[in-house]
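Module 6 notes. Inverse folding takes a fixed backbone as the condition and produces residue identities as the prediction. Think of it as a translation problem where the source language is geometry and the target language is the twenty amino acids. Below is one complete input and output pair. Work through it position by position during the lab.
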């Protein structure tokens, strides 16, 4: 009796994640994101400190205030002629301050949407504004390299602070003192100011990159800055000593926020990721991926809602699912199942045919083209790419991949090229897909001129992707060679030092023996 061995599709499995930590389990409760489209990039996101924790999204020429439960706009502050920046709530949630491209600072009443105060004095765009700890002053940070402190009641400048040599794009006020504030800009400098001191600046540190965001920790003695790919933690009470440097992002870090009562630090970056750090030891405890570059972050005081604003105008809203809701859903499902099966003698489990079973059937009858078609569907390509590559590997082993590639329509060929473009740089699939692409070129090299423009563009894209991978490989080989040289040198030095120490110890023993004799 003949025996057919099913295709091995577990050959390309990815290594499993490490053991789940409490932080991983906690942040995994964030539900499926709701995406809201705004006009223009999302400059800033800020949550009201008071329930029901509305959040303000600053983009284009307005500030939108959302309800975190319904995900709908409840207020629209659109009294701007040019782009609005940095809409921030006061600690009671009743007032909101925002800067704009014209250099104006506007104070809004959230309930009535009226402008209560208009602060004029900056000569450049005001990208950030914040209330002081006593809620009676406003600090504004501008592209004119100036920092101003305003009095709410009189609309007059209380303190003018200069010293920066480039745009001031980041700033914050102390959570424990109404007189302390921090400004940071594109001149790489972070300056701490005290409004009671005549000179203004009491501390200055160098971040070594243009600073995009800065914030105080709740104690007020430590502040954090983000610029370039680095996040740096500074000791404000220790003369600006650098405590630690976090380098988990590979593109510019754009925003910082505190969560979990100040025990967790969140950072967003242009590399499409959000990182969460434990403030006690500054270790990265969790990571969340986004479909585009993250420009702004916001999280409610109870951690129930996490909002991220992206460069393409998308606002991602995630709500924390409570453990009670999960348990209730499981109990409801169990009750429904019991009611449905109460009067049934026997429950037969539903058997769903897998794609792999169809592939094995076609391979058994030598229908190689149909076997490959089964693995090029959208669902299989996105969820089970290892199965598609496994089929190609099996067809290469049987010397039937050329027959599976030949005679394809332009639509099917476009699907095949799209799959190769998408996964050829994945280290799990590179070897097999390189062989498959070579066979594909051999099959269609004589008819390449008859292809439409979109398929030729995919071939060109494949060439560019391969050149990029070649460049990366050469770079990695150079780094590997340099590391091997350093390691061999270090091992040689350590070996020589060990031999010298051994000789010295032997000589010392001989001298001791002579003395005793």
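Target side of the pair, the amino acids:
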């Amino acid at each position: 009796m003949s025996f057919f061995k099913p295709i091995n599709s577990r050959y390309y499995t990815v290594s499993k994640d490490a053991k789940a930590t409490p932080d991983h389990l906690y942040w995994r409760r964030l539900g499926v994101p709701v995406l809201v489209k705004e006009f223009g990039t999302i400059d800033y996101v800020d949550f009201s400190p008071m329930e029901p924790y509305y959040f303000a999204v600053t983009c284009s020429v307005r500030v939108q205030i959302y309800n975190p439960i319904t995900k709908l706009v409840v207020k629209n502050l659109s009294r701007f002629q040019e782009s609005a920046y940095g809409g921030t709530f006061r600690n009671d949630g009743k007032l909101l301050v925002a800067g704009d491209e014209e250099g104006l600072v506007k104070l809004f009443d959230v309930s009535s949407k009226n402008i209560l105060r208009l602060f004029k004095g900056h000569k450049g765009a005001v990208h950030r504004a914040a209330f002081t700890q006593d809620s009676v002053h406003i600090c504004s940070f501008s592209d004119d390299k100036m920092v101003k402190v305003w009095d709410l009641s009189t609309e007059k400048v209380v303190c003018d602070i200069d010293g920066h040599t480039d745009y001031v794009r980041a700033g914050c006020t102390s959570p424990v003192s109404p007189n302390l504030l921090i400004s940071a800009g594109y001149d790489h400098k972070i300056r701490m100011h005290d409004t009671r001191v005549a000179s203004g600046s009491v501390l200055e540190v160098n971040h070594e990159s243009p600073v995009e965001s800065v914030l105080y920790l709740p104690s007020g003695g430590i502040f954090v800055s983000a610029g370039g790919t680095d996040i740096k933690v500074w000791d404000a009470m220790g003369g600006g000593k650098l405590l630690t440097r976090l380098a988990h992002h590979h593109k510019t870090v754009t925003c910082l926020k505190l969560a979990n009562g100040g025990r967790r630090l969140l950072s967003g970056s242009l590399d499409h990721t959000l990182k969460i750090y434990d403030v006690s030891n500054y270790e990265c405890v969790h990571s969340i991926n986004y479909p585009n570059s993250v420009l702004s972050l916001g999280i409610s005081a109870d951690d129930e809602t996490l909002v991220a604003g992206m460069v393409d105008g998308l606002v991602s809203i995630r709500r924390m699912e409570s453990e009670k809701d999960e348990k209730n859903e499981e109990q409801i499902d169990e009750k429904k199942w019991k009611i449905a099966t109460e009067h049934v003698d026997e429950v037969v489990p539903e058997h769903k045919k897998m794609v792999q079973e169809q592939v094995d059937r076609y391979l058994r009858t030598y229908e190689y083209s149909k076997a490959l078609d089964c693995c090029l569907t959208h669902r299989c390509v996105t969820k089970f790419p290892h199965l598609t590559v496994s089929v190609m590997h099996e067809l290469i082993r049987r010397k039937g991949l050329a027959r599976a590639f030949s005679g394809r329509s332009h639509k099917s060929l476009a699907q095949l090229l799209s799959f190769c473009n998408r996964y050829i740089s994945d280290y799990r699939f590179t070897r097999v897909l390189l062989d498959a692409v070579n066979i594909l070129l051999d099959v269609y090299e004589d008819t390449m001129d008859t292809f439409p423009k979109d398929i030729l563009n995919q071939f060109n894209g494949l060439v560019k992707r391969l050149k990029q991978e070649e460049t990366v490989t050469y770079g990695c080989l150079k780094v590997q060679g340099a590391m091997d040289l350093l390691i061999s040198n270090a091992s040689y030095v350590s070996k020589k030092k060990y031999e010298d120490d051994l000789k010295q110890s032997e000589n010392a023993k001989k001298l001791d023996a002579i003395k005793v004799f």
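Reference fact for the lab report: DSSP finds ten helices and 28 strands in the chain.
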